[in-house]
Design brief:
Two copies of one chain form a homodimer. With 334 residues, the first copy, chain A, is mostly helical. Chain A has a single domain, classed as Farnesyl Diphosphate Synthase (Orthogonal Bundle), CATH 1.10.600. Helices cover 73% and strands 1% of the residues of chain A. Chain A has helices at 10-15, 17-30, 37-47, 53-66, 74-98, 109-113, 115-135, 139-162, 170-195, 200-224, 239-243, 248-256, 259-270, 278-288, 291-309, 316-331, and strands spanning 102-103, 106-107. In chain A, strand 1 (102-103) and strand 2 form a beta hairpin. The longest helix of chain A is centred in the middle third of the chain and has 26 residues, at 170-195.
Chain lengths: 334, 334
């Protein structure tokens, strides 16, 4: 295995650690409000962490343009905080919509503070994200991220209208995950390059990398939901099945399924009539078609695409770190 | 009664009718999405109308700078559509939070499509509003409206934390309505002047007018909720009482109340233990202190302030129309 095939996010977090510390300071400072419930609730979610993928991608975009000189680029830091705020706003609203009570292994904000607070603090974080973007004084960046935000919600609405429909075409699923995940990865990476004065080719390359990475990331996430041996995801396996969320493995199995199997999908994930043993049966059907493996294969193709997009980058350290991050996305599976 | 004391919004809508037609076209065009549920739901709400106060104020801001030449100012039209989208996004989220099933006399979107759809389409309208603002290519305007948006949510969260607390200080109530209503009126009027290249004094005057008008508007709205004879408001009288929403009349009556009365407020609006005859009793207590009249008086002071802010405007037709609109705010009461 060559060094460039390390599957880890660590090289990227280490390369950008100094800036990420400053981004975290911006995040904490800009959650503040005269209304105490806002920082309390926001802090519960944001301090819980996650990998901060989107701020990392934004900083990586700046680094792609200016190399190590990008360190200390305050505009890129503001923008990184903004994309993290947008992401967390959508998480707050998702948890309301899904009526989730666990996220990243902790009680969700809506479980603790109620749906009202989660809706409103999500709105606050979204508005605050735009305030941060305004401070970069770069209207093109605002254009990228406002349009990404609209597409995120389109993806989520589409996902909602697909719920309980195992006969949905694969193209619909891909449209959903493009919106709900990949677009913000892409916009984060591209806007980091833009705000640092990058050339169009670099901005486009970062966009392409982020988009492909986001697709791979979400496909893997969805596939792992049918792996009962995966406990480290911070969500329960089988959640999507119970919620009627239609993802790639189910669509693959539906396409190839017998009449009996389709009737099973229709009753269970379709109509939400889930009986004992149904999840195990679902996993068995998926396995009989290697549907999870095929989904992971498709995720790997997106990773390959992401890595190809990096060719244009001149900084060896950054390229290698972004490669490792891309391999990491699919390495979670094995 | 002099002509300038007409209490009506008609002079303003007539003065700006040509532009408002174009704003409505922008609104319809920009609700569109590949995901059909989005325009369906948005159209249900937005087509239901309302007075379009915020777009009118935005166009008035442009008119204050450029007079009749402002007509056809596409940037002001984009911005007017944007503020209407922000407003409707907050309405969608409010209806989810309040679990309302009626708005403007029609079924609410959440009653028809569910909470999930209302949350997400609210997010979509908010994101789309920022896309429209980006098209004005005026970052100062984005600053005004992103900061207004953050303050709107702060006002709403504050309102939520005040719920069921009749002992709340008046200052808290004023902070709530500043955020939830007045700030967007102010930002709409000021940003319309800004995007048209207005001088600072004109921008400030429009901001002051919008802010005062918004305060008057919300105080009257809240006071009328205790007037059983008002049917035309599109919401049911007594809603705030049942919801535990603490507004000016209740705070005034609490301040002056006897121990028994305070115990009544505490049980009913405070703890939500509403018994038959409680609303009539609440109205009787408010009347014994002339609390509704006093609230309306305070609203009138804001109207006076709004009108004073207009002194700087040179266009007689606009000044007179904005005066009439201000008087209209409090004339709804008699």
């Amino acid at each position: 295995m060559s060094a460039s095939h390390t599957a880890s996010i660590t090289p990227l977090t280490e390369l950008l650690s100094q800036d990420m510390r400053l981004v975290n300071e911006v995040i904490i400072a800009r959650m503040s409000s005269d209304v105490p419930m806002i920082p309390q609730l926001a802090n519960h979610l944001i301090a819980a962490g996650g990998k901060r993928m989107r701020p990392l991608l934004c900083l990586a975009g700046a680094y792609a343009v200016r190399g190590a000189d990008a360190s200390g680029d305050h505009k890129a830091q503001l923008l990184s905080a903004a994309v993290e705020f947008i992401h967390n706003a959508t998480l707050l609203h998702d948890d309301v919509i899904d009526e989730s009570d666990k996220r990243r292994g902790r009680d969700t904000a809506n479980a603790l503070w109620g749906n009202e607070a989660s809706v409103l603090v999500g709105d606050f974080l979204f508005a605050r994200a735009f305030e941060l973007m305004v401070e970069t004084d770069d209207i093109a960046v605002l254009g990228m991220l406002s349009s990404a935000s609209a597409r995120i919600t389109e993806g989520e609405v589409k996902q909602m209208t697909m719920a309980g429909k195992p006969e949905s075409p694969m193209a619909d699923y891909l449209q959903v995950i493009t919106g709900k995940t990949a677009i913000l990865f892409a916009a984060a990476a591209a806007s980091g390059a833009k705000v640092s004065g990058g050339a169009k080719e670099v901005i486009d390359a970062m966009h392409h990398y982020g988009l492909s990475l986001g697709m791979a990331f979400q496909i893997v996430d969805d596939a792992l939901d049918y792996r009962s041996d995966v406990a480290a995801m911070g969500k329960n396996s089988g959640d999507d099945f119970v919620d009627g969320k239609i993802t790639m493995p189910v669509i693959l199995a539906w396409e190839k399924g017998t009449e009996d199997e389709r009737a099973f999908w229709q009753r269970s994930i379709g109509e939400g009539d889930i009986q004992e043993g149904d999840f195990a049966k679902a996993v068995a059907i998926l396995d009989s078609y290697s549907a999870i493996d095929e989904a992971l294969q498709r995720a790997k193709s997106y990773v390959d695409e992401a890595i190809k997009a990096l060719d244009i980058l001149s900084d060896e350290a950054l390229r290698s770190a972004l490669q490792s991050a891309a391999y990491y996305t699919v390495a979670r599976t094995s």
